[in-house]
Amino acid sequence: MNAIAHPLHPSVDTGALTICGLSKTYALKGRPVKVLKDIDLNIRPGEFVSILGASGCGKSTLLRLIVGLDQDYQGQILLDQQPVRGPGLERGIVFQDHRLFPWMTLQQNIALALKNHVMPAAQKDRLVAEHIDLVGLRGFELAYPHQLSGGMAQRAAIARALVNKPKVLLLDEPLGALDALTRVRLQQELQRIWIQERCTVIMVTHDIDEALYLGDRVIVMDANPGTIREDLPIDLPHPRERDSALLQGYKQRLLGELVGH
Amino acid sequence: MRLLSPLSWLISPLALLTLWALVAKAGLFPVNLLVPPLEVWHSFAELLATGELQEHLSGSLSRLALGFAGGSLAGLAFGTALALSKTLEAYCAPLFHTLRQIPSIALIPMFVLLFGVDETFKVVIVAKTAFFPVALATCEGVRAIPRSHFEVAAVYRLRWTTLVGRIALPAAVPAIVTGVRVALTRAWVVLVACELLAADSGLGQMIEMARQMLRIDVVMVGVVVTGVIGFTLDFGLRRLERRLSNWQSR
Amino acid sequence: MKVRDMRGLVLPLLMVGAWEYASRQGAAGAYAFVPLAQVASAMAELLGSGELLINLWASLTRTCTGLGVGIVGGIGLGALMALCGPANRLIAPLFHALRQVPMLGWIPLIALWLGNGESAKLLIVSLAALYPMVLNTFESRRQVEGQHREAAQVLMLSRWQQLRLILLPAAVPGIAAGVLQALAFAWVTSVGSELFLSSGAGLGSLMMNAEAAARMEIIIVCVLCIGLSGYLMSWLCTLLSRRLLRWRPNR
């Protein structure tokens, strides 16, 4: 394993995300509830950002706003200086539940993401096959989602999000529903894939170890309303060792902040 | 807007009624094929005033009550026994599932020959119609009570009365009520069909007589009343079903 | 294991035996309970003369035609109601009101309007198949989970692509369940309508004529035939839908 230049991949120059003064209000039983308040965030191209927070702090809402599923907010979201409007193929997302379509095979599910690309069928086939390889699912091309284990289905969802070559990959607690062992394995996979693909990644999680192990930065969020409490750079090259003293130190600090000894 | 939206559901029924009245008034069809809605209403009022409608209705409903009570109680008992006893299942299940396939309507001619055209035949066929759905639902409802419930009960050393009353019954009842509802709706349909074919009283007989005398207004009153009764029976049991299963996440 | 399987046969055999016994108890018994030999010879006779097949064929073709009309109309109407709010507002009240009347309750009215020929029966069978199709199509659209719709949005599928690739396949299980129900209704209604409008060919007409002539053996053959055909048709339909829905986990 060779160390990769840190923190930025020199070859990546698109995928910068700028968020200014972002606020979001829901109406709950007729009363407005503020879920996000004055979020400012600058994410550099190719950066892996972990967003850490307790459930209900608005971190998933933040991702929904960035991916464009919800367009009712105040403030600005810019991708490479262009405002974001609605969903787009330059932003891929992996949800906590895999959301593969149960009536399509693995191959068809991934190919669906390429539906509106103008390219020869052979090239689409090749891209799909490459990404199935990338997530280590070769041999399962013709399996239906119900035949895959939870971890495999989540890998497939990652492949579907990556096959469009998005500038930004959004991960909404992608490993949250998996068992602890599968989780650790997929964290390593995610790191490998990210090093290979070199896109900007924003991952929402409530697992401190996961946030520290994968992130170039860890953004800690507070709830009610959702605000950024801390922006913690992790100066450690990838791939990382889980038991590094630096990560352990950060972990103790974050635990203290979030749980309060 | 909030007041308007429930009213918008009335647009099409009112439009149809108006269209019906207009077409009937224009005289495009002979009166014995298309009576104006107002005349149907008058016939309804007349049938009510003379007590004729009530008489037919009570005839039909008492048959339904008698046959349904018999059939569904038998179904309840048989279904429970079928779910609990492996021996009974081995002996009865194949016959039960074969007979279940035969639609009640197709049995009308056979039952007429066996029981004659009197009350017995109608009550028996209603009972038969009610028996199968109730028995099936009961059997499945009882079988679907999770084993783990009984284990929890054992851990807490619950008495068996508590076990049946507080655990087994509530767990099985929603499925059974669904079966009872289906059975009641079907029994009503089959009863009206029987009365259309062979009866000297009852809603179906009223419709059939009116048809033979070309009284389309009375036929329509009968059809509407049949529908209203069916709807009411179904609606009532649906309410019950929802109350009994409000602990389920649906 | 073999002995266990045989236990299911005990009760039917007992019933047949009791029937045969009853048939030998004098004239009154033989009127309703015909001897088994007579049932067998009636079966042979009906098969030999082709009478059974002609009537079965008539009932079956009407069922299939009515089912076809009901499926096409029901999916169309159900999809219209599911996808277009104003259309639902207009159609739903009428549909649910008309649905409350038992299918066979319509027969006198329809007979007055259309006579008691084939067209009246076909209309009733089509209506019987239409109801479950509309209901199931409408319901299955609601069952397309919001998460699937979001995933389709993120993948930038156009409206038409969403309809064709997401909504339609997601609705298939519901529609298949509807077809199975519609088939059962259409078959019962087809035979039932012949009991009331017993002109023309059909198993129901055959039974009514046999009832008038007190020919129990013919009725028994018809009932067996109706039960068996209904069972075979729904079995075929289940096979077909399982093939179509092989992407679903086996429950």
Summarize the SSE layout with pairings.
The complex is a heterotrimer of chains A (261), B (250) and C (251).
Chain A: E1 17-28, E2 31-43, E3 48-52, H1 59-67, E4 74-79, E5 82-83, E6 91-94, H2 106-112, H3 121-134, H4 150-162, E7 168-172, H5 180-197, E8 200-205, H6 208-214, E9 217-222, E10 227-233, H7 245-259
Parallel strand pairs in A: 3-8, 3-9, 6-7, 7-8
Antiparallel strand pairs in A: 1-2, 1-4, 4-5, 9-10
Chain B: H1 4-8, H2 11-26, H3 37-50, H4 52-84, H5 86-100, H6 108-115, H7 119-143, H8 147-155, H9 160-197, H10 203-212, H11 216-244
Chain C: H1 2-23, H2 26-32, H3 36-49, H4 51-83, H5 85-99, H6 106-114, H7 118-143, H8 146-154, H9 159-196, H10 203-212, H11 216-244
Q: Would you tell me which CATH topology of chain A applies? A: Rossmann fold
Radius of gyration of chain A, taken over Cα atoms and rounded to an integer in Å: 18 Å
The helix content of chain C, as a percent range, equals: over 70%
The total domain count of chain A is 1
Q: Strand sequence of the main sheet of chain A, in spatial order?
A: 6-7-8-3-9-10
Q: Determine the CATH topology of chain C.
A: MetI-like fold
First and last CA, distance of chain A: 37 Å
User: Oligomeric state of the chains?
Assistant: heterotrimer
Shape of chain C: elongated
Radius of gyration of chain C, in Å, reads 23 Å
Put simply, the count of helices of chain C is 11
Biggest pleated-sheet summary of chain A: 6 strands, mixed
For the record, what is the CATH homologous superfamily label of chain A? Answer: P-loop containing nucleotide triphosphate hydrolases
Q: Tell me the β content of chain C.
A: under 5%
Describe the structure.
The complex is a heterotrimer of chains A (261), B (250) and C (251). Chain A has seven helices and ten strands. Chain A is of the alpha/beta class. Chain A has a single domain, classed as 3-Layer(aba) Sandwich (Rossmann fold). In chain A, the strands form two sheets. In chain A, strands 6-7-8-3-9-10 form a six-stranded mixed sheet, with helices on both faces. In chain A, strands 2-1-4-5 form a four-stranded antiparallel sheet, covered by helices on one side. Chain A starts with 16 loop residues before the first strand and ends with a helix. The relative contact order of chain A is 0.19. Chain B starts with a helix and ends in a 6-residue tail after the last helix. Chain C has a single domain (36-244), classed as MetI-like (MetI-like fold, Orthogonal Bundle). Helices cover 84% and strands 0% of the residues of chain C. The two termini of chain C are 26 Å apart. The relative contact order of chain C is 0.12. The model of chain C has no long low-confidence stretch (mean pLDDT 86). The chains are: A alpha/beta (261), B mainly alpha (250), C mainly alpha (251).
